[in-house]
């Protein structure tokens, strides 16, 4: 999504403005994180010389005896991210907001990412809190989060996702 479209969708709350000020971040840099928190998913923004990306991970904890659990979300905000290493290959169906249909694409299974600034946000549904912490070292992602990094980096580098269109798949009925 283009910057102006994103900006129109969002008005920062008073709490968010206070957090942005305390973290000493430009408001624009905070947009992908807020979008991941509010709407879910991974987001990226390429504005002027700033590249910003948010990547979301989910971790579900479940107590088999009590039959209750919760899903903790970790959202990472990267300012000027750089992929240091990619490993493996996974073929998957993927839908980008820039395209009408899903495509089969090839993504790395493992990705290591560094950035000028990394912020971790942990969304805890039990405590109803969003805990923020600055991270100083590169992070390694596997699986869905690695695919998200790969996809968002394409946006930040103005590359087009290329894959086999879903409509080229053939239906096969098994007996």
Let me know the number of strands: 11
How helical, in percent, are the residues?
10-25%
Tell me the overall shape: globular
Biggest sheet overview: 5 strands, antiparallel
* Gap from first CA to last CA: 44 Å
Determine the mean pLDDT. 89
Q: Structural class of the secondary structure composition? A: alpha+beta
Share of β-strand residues: 35-45%
Q: Main sheet: which strands, in order across?
A: 1-2-3-8-9
Topology as H/E string? Answer: HHHEEEEEEEEEEHE
Poorly predicted tracts of residues: none
Total helical elements: 4
* Cα gyration radius (Å): 18 Å
Question: Would you mind describing this structure in some detail?
Answer:
By secondary structure, the protein is an alpha+beta fold. It has 4 helices and 11 strands. It has helices spanning 3-9, 14-23, 27-39, 144-156, and strands at residues 43-47, 50-63, 68-79, 82-87, 90-94, 103-107, 110-114, 117-124, 129-135, 139-142, 164-165. The chain has a 5-stranded antiparallel sheet with strand order 1-2-3-8-9. A 3-stranded antiparallel sheet has the order 4-7-10, with helices on one face.
Short note summarizing the structure:
By secondary structure, the chain is of the alpha+beta class. Helices cover 25% and strands 42% of the residues.
Q: Layout of helices and strands, plus pairs?
A:
Elements: H1 3-9, H2 14-23, H3 27-39, E1 43-47, E2 50-63, E3 68-79, E4 82-87, E5 90-94, E6 103-107, E7 110-114, E8 117-124, E9 129-135, E10 139-142, H4 144-156, E11 164-165
Antiparallel strand pairs: 1-2, 2-3, 3-8, 4-7, 5-6, 6-11, 7-10, 8-9
